[in-house]
């Protein structure tokens, strides 16, 4: 008797089992709706990117790579890709050099105005960006930074600050201070402790922050458009031109190109976030 | 190996004195426990010894040399922290090797030391494991190994086993005690668990509110607490109020009249009487009490008694003793301590309500 009851598992009211099928159907429906919502636009994009002729009765267009060769054969496009792949990493790296020590200070030191300063990094995102960029442009004119590589990098860095301050601050805070103290106790000075203990433990969090920052810099369009034209055009800026003046598939092809870094980082992030020592570093 | 001495050490956080004028001598090879409730300043004291906090006043001397000017990495101390504190991105071997590499030992010597110290803490063969592959107890063993391998003069342990389950905690503290005896290292052990302190310490320093209350062997601390706080904190203690009778008459405590040898307290002075549960006996000429509850604690009985004027009292007796709840009986005191202001007087010998006042000289004065 008891064995039979045990085999039946945790007891639930009968109505719970009666609507089991309905619950499952609801869950499946919700899942499909979410999948369509997320993947639908991406699928449309892919279809357009590989579309040749698309005539009325056909549900799908002819498969074709013509637009790809058209886009990649365009010298301006290739130049923009090169510019993007140069500015975004430089902006991320420069920002990291400035922000990560600052984040460590935010996490470890108590100084007056700490919270206010930490919040101030939100200010770049708190106002309409375009107004900010226009005033930056007037400043850059005076500093001779308009239409320069440095100017574009600086504008892109504005978008990376938030990620490279806030995420690393949280990461450093999550690292138990006694881990550092144990290293000091074992004979390591403050610098060695930071580079051999704190930094490696924080690395997964810092990598995630750098990925977000890279994507923010890579996708930056408005500021780069204002500061970088005419000679320093990046991919998102190019996108404006392509969408406005070329057939739809060109925009689709370029969108796919633009989303490649995000995709690559997604896979990378997954790899790093799964590493066992991340969990160990935070939970202990 | 070396002795450690704290000289009138003070640490303030804001206006709050976390540690107030603590002076403590830890002898060479001794295991000293810092014991007290949370927030009593024991961990602050330990962190000052390790160099993680700078005292606001006073001196810390190791081997008779002040170490105040030294940062933690230059002090001859090694600390085992409260929480599992191995570096998660390194293997067990790398954790242990970290300090050795800084001391520029040859790879061979490092390998040998890792093997030796892991054998010492009972974890041979775990050198290649990651910290998260180890259980909590194993992690703390590695932490102890990591500290010991540097051959410090002073070993500091900050509640190292508080995160382990009760059974493992008992096991680990025995191991640490044996290890400490074996290598004879001067050790300061912080704990809030008095049982832990009483079982492993050579001497215990009881702290409360940043003030050092008493430094003594476990037996002395249990038998002759010098302050009311220690009396209440160490072991189980019955405390009840009493008042002084006219000079020479002793004190009136509940149903008892106790003679207090050597005490000259003004009449009506408020006194607190402290009696261990094992110092209560059933005696025909004792004070009246009623049994409220009988709890079988395995090898002995804990009897909760209501005693008019003294409140609820706890008595420990052997298991065979016949008690029933609601039973009326007469209770005597074998031994007690009387506290008045900063003064404590030991009251010895069987106390009887009628005889107590005449029973002079049975007790031994114990001036604070």
3D architecture notes:
The complex is a heterodimer of chains A (284) and B (368). Chain A folds into 2 domains: 14-49; 67-283, MetI-like fold, CATH 1.10.3720.10. Chain A is built from 15 helices and no strands. Chain A has helices spanning 2-7, 14-18, 20-49, 66-73, 75-108, 114-120, 123-126, 129-143, 149-174, 177-185, 190-219, 222-228, 235-245, 248-274, 276-283. The longest helix of chain A is centred in the first third of the chain and has 34 residues, at 75-108. The model of chain A is unreliable at 1-8 and 276-284 (pLDDT under 50). Chain B is of the alpha+beta class. Chain B has 2 domains: 4-229, Rossmann fold; 236-358, Nucleic acid-binding proteins (OB fold (Dihydrolipoamide Acetyltransferase, E2P)), CATH 2.40.50. Helix content of chain B is 23%, strand content 35%. Chain B has helices spanning 42-50, 92-102, 107-120, 136-148, 166-183, 194-200, 218-223, 228-233; strands at 4-13, 16-26, 31-35, 57-62, 65-66, 77-80, 154-158, 186-191, 203-208, 211-216, 238-244, 251-253, 256-258, 270-275, 280-296, 300-307, 311-318, 328-333, 336-340, 343-347. In chain B, strands 6-7-8-3-9-10 form a 6-stranded mixed β-sheet, with helices on both faces. In chain B, helix 2 packs across helix 3, helix 2 (92-102) packs parallel to helix 4 (136-148) and helix 3 (107-120) crosses helix 4. The radius of gyration of chain B is 25 Å and the shape is elongated. The two termini of chain B are 33 Å apart. Chains A and B meet through helix 10, helix 11 and helix 15 of A and strand 6, helix 2 and helix 4 of B.
Fold blueprint:
The complex is a heterodimer of chains A (284) and B (368).
Chain A: H1 2-7, H2 14-18, H3 20-49, H4 66-73, H5 75-108, H6 114-120, H7 123-126, H8 129-143, H9 149-174, H10 177-185, H11 190-219, H12 222-228, H13 235-245, H14 248-274, H15 276-283
Helix pairs in contact in A: 3-14, 4-14, 5-9, 5-11, 5-13, 8-12, 9-11, 9-12, 10-11, 11-14, 13-14
Chain B: E1 4-13, E2 16-26, E3 31-35, H1 42-50, E4 57-62, E5 65-66, E6 77-80, H2 92-102, H3 107-120, H4 136-148, E7 154-158, H5 166-183, E8 186-191, H6 194-200, E9 203-208, E10 211-216, H7 218-223, H8 228-233, E11 238-244, E12 251-253, E13 256-258, E14 270-275, E15 280-296, E16 300-307, E17 311-318, E18 328-333, E19 336-340, E20 343-347
Parallel strand pairs in B: 3-8, 3-9, 6-7, 7-8
Antiparallel strand pairs in B: 1-2, 1-4, 4-5, 9-10, 11-12, 11-14, 12-13, 14-19, 15-16, 15-18, 16-17, 19-20
Helix pairs in contact in B: 2-3, 2-4, 3-4
């Amino acid at each position: 008797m008891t064995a039979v009851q045990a085999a039946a598992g945790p007891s639930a009211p009968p109505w719970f089992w009666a609507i089991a099928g309905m619950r499952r159907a609801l869950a499946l429906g919700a899942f499909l709706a979410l999948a369509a919502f997320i993947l639908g636009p991406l699928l449309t994009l892919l279809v357009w990117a590989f579309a040749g002729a698309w005539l009325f009765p056909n549900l799908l267009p002819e498969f074709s790579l013509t637009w790809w060769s058209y886009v990649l054969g365009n010298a301006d496009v290739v130049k923009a890709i090169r510019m993007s792949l140069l500015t975004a990493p430089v902006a991320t790296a420069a920002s990291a050099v400035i922000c990560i020590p600052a984040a460590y200070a935010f996490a470890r030191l108590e100084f007056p105005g700490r919270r206010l300063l930490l919040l101030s990094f939100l200010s770049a995102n708190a106002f309409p960006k375009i107004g900010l960029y226009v005033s930056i442009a007037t400043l850059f004119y005076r500093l001779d930074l308009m239409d320069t590589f440095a100017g574009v990098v600086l504008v892109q860095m504005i978008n990376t600050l938030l990620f490279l301050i806030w995420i690393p601050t949280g990461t450093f805070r999550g690292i138990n201070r006694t881990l550092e103290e144990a290293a000091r106790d074992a004979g390591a000075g403050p610098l060695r402790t930071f580079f051999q203990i704190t930094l490696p433990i924080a690395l997964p969090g810092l990598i995630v922050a750098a990925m977000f920052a890279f994507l923010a810099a890579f996708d930056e369009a408005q500021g780069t458009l204002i500061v970088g034209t005419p000679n320093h055009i990046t991919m998102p800026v190019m996108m404006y031109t392509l969408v406005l003046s070329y057939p739809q598939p060109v925009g689709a092809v370029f969108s796919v190109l633009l989303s490649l870094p995000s995709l690559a980082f997604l896979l990378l992030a997954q790899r790093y976030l799964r590493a066992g020592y991340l969990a160990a570093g935070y939970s202990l | 190996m070396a002795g450690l001495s704290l000289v009138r050490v003070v640490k303030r956080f804001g206006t709050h004195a976390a540690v107030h004028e603590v002076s403590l001598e830890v002898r060479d090879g001794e295991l000293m426990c810092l014991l007290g409730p949370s927030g009593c300043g024991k961990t602050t004291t330990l962190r000052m010894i390790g160099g993680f906090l700078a005292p606001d006043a006073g001196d810390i001397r190791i081997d008779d040399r002040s170490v105040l000017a030294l940062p933690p990495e230059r002090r001859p101390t090694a600390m085992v922290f409260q929480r599992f504190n191995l570096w998660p991105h390194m293997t067990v071997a790398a954790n242990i090797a970290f300090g050795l590499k800084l001391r520029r030992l040859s790879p061979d010597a490092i390998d040998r030391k890792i093997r030796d110290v892991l054998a010492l803490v009972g974890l041979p063969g775990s050198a290649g494991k990651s910290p998260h592959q180890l259980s909590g107890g194993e992690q703390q063993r590695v932490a102890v190994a990591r500290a010991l391998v540097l051959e410090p003069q002073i070993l500091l342990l900050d509640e190292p086993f508080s995160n382990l389950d009760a059974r493992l905690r008992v096991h680990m503290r025995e191991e640490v005690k044996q290890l400490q005896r074996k290598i004879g290292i001067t050790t300061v052990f912080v704990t809030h668990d008095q049982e832990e302190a009483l079982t492993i310490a050579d001497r215990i320093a009881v702290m409360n509110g940043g003030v050092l209350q008493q430094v003594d062997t476990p037996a002395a601390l249990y038998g002759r607490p010098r302050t009311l706080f220690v009396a209440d904190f160490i072991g189980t203690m019955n405390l009840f109020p009493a008042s002084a009778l006219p000079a020479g008459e002793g004190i009136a405590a509940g149903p008892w009249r106790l003679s207090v040898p050597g005490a000259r307290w003004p009449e009506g002075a408020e006194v607190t009487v402290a009696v261990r549960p094992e110092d209560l006996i059933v005696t025909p000429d004792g004070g009246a009490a009623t049994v409220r509850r009988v709890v079988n604690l395995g090898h002995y009985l804990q009897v909760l008694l209501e005693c008019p004027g003294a409140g609820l009292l706890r008595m420990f007796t052997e298991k065979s003793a016949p008690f029933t709840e609601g039973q009326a009986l007469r209770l005597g005191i074998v031994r007690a301590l009387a506290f008045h202001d900063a003064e404590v007087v030991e009251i010895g010998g069987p106390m009887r309500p009628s005889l107590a006042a005449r029973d002079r000289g049975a007790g031994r004065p114990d001036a604070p």
